[in-house]
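Why this split exists: single-chain examples teach little about how molecules sit against one another. For that reason, every record in the complexes split bundles all components of an assembly together and asks for one structure covering all of them. Below is a record exactly as it appears in the raw files.
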Amino acid sequence: MSEFSFHSYCHVLQRIRETRSTNAKITLFANCLKSAEDEKTLALAARFIGEGAFEEISGKRASVGSRTSGLAAAKFCEIDYELVFKPCRTATGSSSEAIARLMENIPEAVQKRNPEKLSLSEVEQIFERLQKLSSRADKEALLWEVWKRMTPVEIKYFIRMLSQGSLRIGFETRSVVASLAEAFGQDREEVRYAHMITGSLGKTAVLASQNRLDEARFSLFHPLSFMLASPIESRAADKLEQYVAEEKFDGMRAQVHVDGPNVKIFSRDLNDITQTFPDVNTFFAGRKLPATVFDGEICVYKENKILPFQLLQKRMGVKKPGKKLLEQYPVLFIPYDLLFTNGTPVFDLTLMKRRELLEKSAKKYKLPVTNQYEISSDDDVKNLFDRAIQHGNEGLILKKKKSVYEYGQRRKSWLKVKKPGGSFETVIMYAHAGSGKRGGTYSDFTLGISVKDDERYEEEFIPIGKAYGGYTDKELKKMNQKIKELTVERYGPTLGLIPELVVEIEFDDIQVNNRTKAGYTLRLPRFRAVRWDLGPNDVNTLSDVENYFQHKISQERLTQIENPSFTFHANDQK
Amino acid sequence: MNIQKTGYHGLYFPDLGISLDGYHPEAEVVFVSHAHADHMPRNRKARAITTHPTLDFMDCRGFTGSGEPLAFGESFENNYCRVSFYPAGHILGSAMIYIESDSGTLLYTGDYRTPPSPATEGFEAPKTADILITEATFALPIYKWKSHEELTHEIHSFATESLNDGYTPIFLAYNLGKAQELMHILAPLGHPVMIHGAGFKLCDVYEKYGIGLGNYSVYDRDTCEGNILIAPSSAMANGFASNVSKKRTAYCSGWAANESRRTQLTVDKMIPISDHLDFFELIRFCKQLSPKMVFITHTPNPAVVEHYLSKEGIENSFLHLEADPED
């Protein structure tokens, strides 16, 4: 076996990318793991492919955006960023791929590079150094220094690891887990479990290689990936009796870790948001709980009503909210699941058992807890759903009674029943070159609404949102042909179009956003249909959008006094 | 020199009474650079002058006008100009068109490739020209082709490894040019090849002009398993070899250099073999010819070539002719 280096590692990544069968990919990576000569290298090999430059639970980010790496690469290759680099990026649909190929092709770049087979540990140190830098110039200088020591394929994956996203080689966490099991003759389920508890592929790899998976320990104050719900339309529930229903709150998902006076709050993307919600922090710090982890929802809660998400937004992202903000938009964290209690993980118990423990804890420590309902017919679902909507909530979540907490997965055990969001007819104003899978086509679109008769605007249409997906490949091809005819301007990867192509979009919600021309943004906008039958005179107007928002925000919400969506034991007056 | 567009792809020279790669009612003749659909005149009234192989291909592909052959080294003359052909290395019969007139010399490249495809007459250019009209299909520095040896090795290994593993190898390549180039490269393996019907009928022309295509026959669904198969990518959607469960596909095109193509096509192998020259060859060729003026056509990124030519001090401009994305 040849020496294990970042260079040989990246070649394995590339081979995984070029292999179609999942099993063959898993075997390729299992062999790579087996050839790691020490613990450290093994841990990094598992981390880099599955989590990126940094451990997910570390919360670290290198913040090297595609502009930073693109600018640095353009200078490195001695090419013009705007004129040459950008069209290359557009043609490939990937900044890192464009950079790698320029590094390979351009003589000025080839001359500068002197690849030297870095070890994975050396690359990790570089990631750490990058993370500590804040100015673009410093980052650029370090990137230069590193690239000089790498081959193009290393540079490509180095950049992708830095973005802490997917390496785009068709190899997700599940496959890494399978490779670990195959490499070290472990049970796949046990590897998965250890990964769930440690939240770290690196640690899991080391435990698996040393036959110590049973030592995996969950550690408090490190977030666990959230279990996610699938939409019910796509995966209909076959036997309703197997499920219980809970209201789906109009708030933000959060995980609360408590141990006595110590509290940490984590968001869906596993960021520490404790400072943003001092009210939740104080609430739990005062309850003297033993080591416990809750999954639940943060909502603005005032005068016995759950208030719209749009109000919660005013709190989100505010690091140290002032007194006024706290009074105006008080929040409540409503637990609905329990992952850890009295120092023991319970996510492997069934939902009903976890629920029992959650209720006990809620009673004892006077915590709110979501209400759960048995269901057996579509009518039950409908009645509960209507009530949830009247409370101002989004709908229902159906949860399988016998399911364990499937961290980080979106499967059939939790199903969301949501009211269909709104829809508008919009017109395509700009088409953007797609990236990744859709590289080489115009697949993202800026959609406009009409302000023709609106005195506040001079233009005819203004953007309301950007959407991609929801169309078939065939439809996309047809749209691209039409776009060719409609193009009037070109700004790098973006085309300005004659507003003619009408698209019906669907969205989950609508929010005020003063940074946009329209003053609103849509949440999760997506295509419902390309309306070849409609023209630009048929699109919705800004007043339609405003009316929709007003209706939404001023909609009467039922109080939580009768038939509430959750029970708050602090309110039980004995 | 007065240059006008005719149709989507053609050029018309009113002062010279001729057009290139597109019919114009006022032109006495149309010179055809090669037999790909986007360069071939469709009009029945067209009087086409082109190379012998191109004329044969045009006959196979339903050209209804009248055609006259002009060999490399010969020239056509009218009252205003003299026109001759230079081998373009793109596909068999492909020619660059060289025009000499009182207002100077002009080289129109059509589609070209240097170093040339081995299944062509090679590549040769005049020493110089006042005006160069060049295609620039792959006009970005991300495009730099591997050597012929490397590509041959990739093609051979894909075929033999698949066959050794018990899989039927399928090369996806378009019908005229790329398909036969692959057959020519595969011929030394001696393994039987089956080619999709639309490409098959063009193979005779290659054999006629002495390009060996090896041991091949027309695609037959029932007996195709175990042969090396060649088909355009569109055929896969129409059930080509769908009865063969153990097969591997390789997409053969310059566009295969782009990773995104892999996901879009779901193929096993991407072989970036192009019949256009790459960016670096393009700039080199422009410098070598040192024309007074370069017109760039057939490219989505004229600004990049303009930028590099201007850096070299070569005056240039974009001439908007459409590129066919399948080439």
